[in-house]
Write a structure and sequence with these properties.
This protein is about 40% helix and about 15% strand. Helix 7 links the parallel strand 6 and strand 7. The structure holds thiamine diphosphate and iron/sulfur cluster.
């Protein structure tokens, strides 16, 4: 087959197609978003879920029914999906279940740089870590096989550079037809009441011992002998993109590149360590590999604490090798990000700033409301937190300050994890009431204009069901529900907010205007849907 230049995300999507996945599910998040979009473009079946927890649950259902499922998310998405994850590993899946966690060391576009290798150990799941697009392709195929052989979910951990760098890929599989789904009743392996979960936990630990033994000869871990004496003096154990940097920074050293980073091939590592004078562990993020080797009694050196932060690269690797802990050069400041000119979020933050509101913010393009000239956001923690945090402040602040608190959340984020916040507001209303503003710009703008359950279009932009925020708010028991079209009555927002903030009642305001970058596409999708509908009507036989 001809070789193709693909980034890691595209390579995973191609492999998933070749593996015959029945369904790809996920929630957008940089750097994982392109996986499902590519799967869809390649003709596979892919859909966005409201959030990562639901995506994993749907994937698990597919796997219980005998189909192969690919579930994608960014690293923080795995926090949202952690609840099903920790018990899914106890269950037996019939079809392969591969969960992609795309980590973001250096926080190119994230609120933290958590290292999701910890999840493999904590949730007891095998983890594969490719270091380029070829391995992303190969390891995805292996992950499905592993998952089916041991009936266990497998985590494929990517990082930003692997997701977004293009390298050559030789695809050696052909598009497989999805396996025929079948329901096999298996109550003790699928219904996790304590009576079944206790033996399931025991079975899981046995599986991991077997997988660890398999990993010693799996072919996923590569030994690259060093050059002469230098290759005996220094041995480097690494994984993922760090392995690529390490080979460039120290080509004469011996390298052991770990492809399956949980459970570890400890005998292989021990043998490698015995053949070198000095063993250095190079890993991006936390010293997880280092700690595991030391716990297994393998003497190894790690990097200095300062290199835990941010991405590694070849110059940083050279510093680590030289034991250089002097302060690093600070990269020149780029242009600060800003809301696009004409962005609908601008006016809202101008109003909030001018009213001196205490703004409990959320994650999306609108987080830029924190920067000048708006400077109108006071908190932002994780998706959906705007409502709970706003309520907490309302419960605690003196009334004159509490009355200034407003929660601001985007449409995609609201569906992701804001709805339960509304339930909290209705159930435990603060004495001063509360005001939630949904900024509905008709898309998930921040991650590249994906659809979500409130746009009325599915991942491939075909029409589907649509959540009505105002109806939802009323049905949940919110006292005051208002909508504003920013084009026609945006100027009323200030007065409306003033009125609602003065009331000791719960209020929801939905401010609508399409994202200016997405608007032409949205018009195109709407027109295409109308045309499809009129063709379907014309084809209907007259009565
Ligand atoms: C748990 C989690 N999943 C995914 C993301 C990535 N992400 C950040 S904001 C966001 C949604 C933004 O859409 P919306 O709320 O509609 O705001 P907009 O960008 O359109 O203004 C996503 C998917 C994240 N930060 N955290
Ligand atoms: S992409 Fe859309 S939502 Fe984001 S800043 Fe630009 S106009 Fe606003």
């Amino acid at each position: 087959m001809p070789r193709q230049l693909l980034n890691g995300d595209e390579a995973v999507a191609l492999a998933a197609l070749h593996a015959g996945v029945s369904l790809g599910t996920g929630y957008p998040g940089t750097p994982s978003t392109e996986i499902l979009e590519t799967l869809d473009h390649l003709g596979g079946r892919a859909q966005w879920s409201p959030n990562e927890k639901v995506a994993l649950e749907v994937g698990l259902g597919v796997a219980f029914a005998g189909g192969r499922a690919l579930v994608t998310m960014k690293h923080v998405g795995l926090n949202v999906a952690a609840d099903p994850l920790f018990t899914a590993t106890y269950t037996d899946v019939d079809g392969g279940l591969v969960i992609v966690s795309a980590d973001d060391p250096g926080m190119a576009s994230s609120q933290n740089e958590q290292d999701n290798r910890h999840y493999a150990r904590a949730a007891v799941a095998p983890m594969l870590e490719p270091c380029d697009s070829q391995e992303a392709y190969d390891f995805t195929l292996v992950a499905f096989e592993l998952s089916e052989r041991w009936k266990i979910p497998v985590i494929l951990r990517l990082t930003t550079r692997v997701c977004h760098s293009k390298t050559l890929v030789e695809a050696h599989a052909k598009v497989a037809a999805p396996t025929a789904p079948v329901f096999n009743r298996n109550v003790p392996s699928r219904v996790m009441i304590p009576a079944y979960a206790k033996p399931a936990h025991g079975r899981l630990r046995v599986k991991m011992v077997e997988i660890a033994a398999w990993n010693e000869t799996s072919g996923l871990n590569r030994l690259i002998p060093g050059v002469g004496e230098a290759g005996q003096r220094l041995g480097i154990v690494s994984s993922g993109i760090a392995a690529v940097h390490a080979q460039e920074a120290a080509p004469e050293a011996s390298h052991l590149v770990i492809g399956m980073t949980w459970p570890l091939p400890l005998d292989t590592i021990r043998q490698f360590a015995a053949g070198v004078d000095r063993l250095l562990v190079i890993e991006e993020g936390d010293p997880m590999l280092l700690d595991s080797l030391r716990a297994a009694g393998i003497t190894a050196e790690g990097k200095a604490e300062m290199y835990r932060f941010g991405e590694l690269n070849v110059p940083r690797l050279r510093r680590i090798l030289a034991g250089d802990t002097s302060p690093e050069a600070v990269p020149p400041k780029g242009k600060p990000p800003e809301l696009c000119q004409g962005c609908s979020h601008r006016d809202v933050f101008e109003v909030l700033r001018d009213m001196d509101c205490i703004v409990s913010g959320d994650i999306g393009c609108y987080t830029l409301g924190v920067l000048p000239p708006f400077s109108a956001m006071d908190t932002c923690v994780c998706m959906g937190a705007s409502i709970g945090v706003g309520l907490g402040m309302r419960h605690t602040l003196p009334p004159e300050q509490a009355r200034r608190v407003v929660s601001v959340i985007g449409d995609s984020t609201f569906v992701h994890s804001g709805i339960t916040g509304l339930a909290e507001m209705v159930y435990n209303p603060p004495e001063t009431g509360h005001v939630v503003v949904i900024l509905d710009n008709g898309t998930t703008a921040m991650t590249g204009q994906q659809e979500n359950p409130s746009t009325g279009r599915s991942l491939n932009h075909d029409p589907t069901g649509k959540i009505d925020f105002e109806a939802l708010g009323r049905a949940m028991g919110i006292k005051n529900v208002h909508s504003l079209n920013r084009f026609t009555d945006g100027h009323l927002l200030g007065d409306l907010l003033k009125e609602l903030l003065a009331k000791p009642e719960t209020s929801l305001v939905v401010v609508r205007q399409p994202c200016v970058l997405a608007a032409p596409k949205i018009r195109f999708y709407e027109k295409a849907a109308m045309e499809k509908m009129s063709h379907a009507c014309a084809a209907m036989p007259a009565e």
